[in-house]
Amino acid sequence: MPSVTVLRRALAVLAAALPLLAAAGCGYGAESTDDDTVRVAAGAKKTDGLDRVRIGYFGNLTHATALVGARKGFFQKELGGTEATYAVFNAGPSEIEALNSGSLDIGFIGPSPAINGYTKSGGKNLRIVGGSASGGVKLVVNPDKVTSLKDVEGKRIATPQLGNTQDVAFLNWAARQGWTVDPQSGKGDVTVVRSDNKVTPDAFRSGSVDGAWVPEPTASRLVAQGGKVLLDEASLWPGRKFVTTNVIVSQTFLEKHPKAVEAVLRASVAANRWIRTHPEEAKAAVNEQLAADTGTPLPADVLDPAWTSFQVTDDPLAATLRAQARHAVEAGLLRSPALEGIYDLTLLNKVLRADGRPAVDDAGLGVPR
Q1: End-to-end CA, the chain
Q2: Which of 131, 234, 245, 331 has its CA 20 to 30 A from that of 309?
């Protein structure tokens, strides 16, 4: 029969494991492992009386604001005695689901999932409260099969997910080439293969896809495998700027806890400033957080080129989101959406003014005042 000491040790191990099992079982996102040196300061005052704020992001370089904010403690510093906790997602719909269920408070996400989530809820589930990244999306192809843009016709091109931001962008670009593609099946003059970013490099290596329209670091992974960048999506936008990542928040959370949202936005602005002024340190911090979240850091031949292909931004670039929504409608993936009210930039502009910077614009899609 086990001794009392052995039983106590077993119970202690089980108790420690239960929170992790609960997080893994929620089905929405993997629990993130942040820097062990970033802790809630003893005696610090809680923000809005909250014990914690739950922040979601993707393991993409275009979510650098969140990765740095977690790794270097920007979120925790601004939240004071309120604990910042993190969840890592693979796709926008699962993050929207987590936001809708109340298991996530604030998230970093692409424009298409934000648009879809907002319209499907009749404008009741979320608000975009800030920007995070612009650019960092490329069409990478097998140079043995595709040597020019016209060669893309008849080929198999991967996008991350049906209706996601890159899927919409590729369908819009293909239509502008005069090609017809069924938006649901992906079949047509070009075959669109919806493939998770995790498996796209294997599909590219095996030859089951001839190219991919993908965000970083997946694009640079394909280049490292011998792929060639045929098109940088930034070249299709005025000033080479288009929104890749936004900051969204549950409308309920925004209404009940504006001070917490403001704290996260202060942290986001501070993290972006630090990324711009400390690019090499920021690149290292992002890779450290990716390694902590996934178990594997990015190799230099992937990280270095990927890091220079996007920019962090506090401005949500609202006019480009409006354009992306129009592209989704034209592609047949979305009915004309009512987007008025999708933005509430009040707190962001408060933070920017306090930082001595001009306010940003919501392109007429803000909450009526």
Answers
A1: 70
A2: 331
Residue 8's Cβ-count burial label (10 Å; 0-12, 13-18, 19+) is exposed
Tokens at 79, concatenated:
């939240």
Query: What proportion of the chain, given as a percentage, has pLDDT over 90?
Result: 81
Instruction: Name the phi and psi angles at 312, rounded to 5.
Output: -80, 150
CB 210 within 8 A of CB 157: yes
pLDDT tens-digit readout, 212-271: 999 999 999 999 999 999 999 999 999 999 999 999 999 999 999 999 999 999 999 999
Number of helical H runs and strand E runs in the chain: 14, 12
Q: Among residues 228, 258, 223, which one has the least CA distance to residue 106?
A: 258
Contact 111, 165 (CB under 8 A): yes
Sheet holding 191-194, edge to edge: 191-194, 156-159, 211-215, 137-141, 228-232
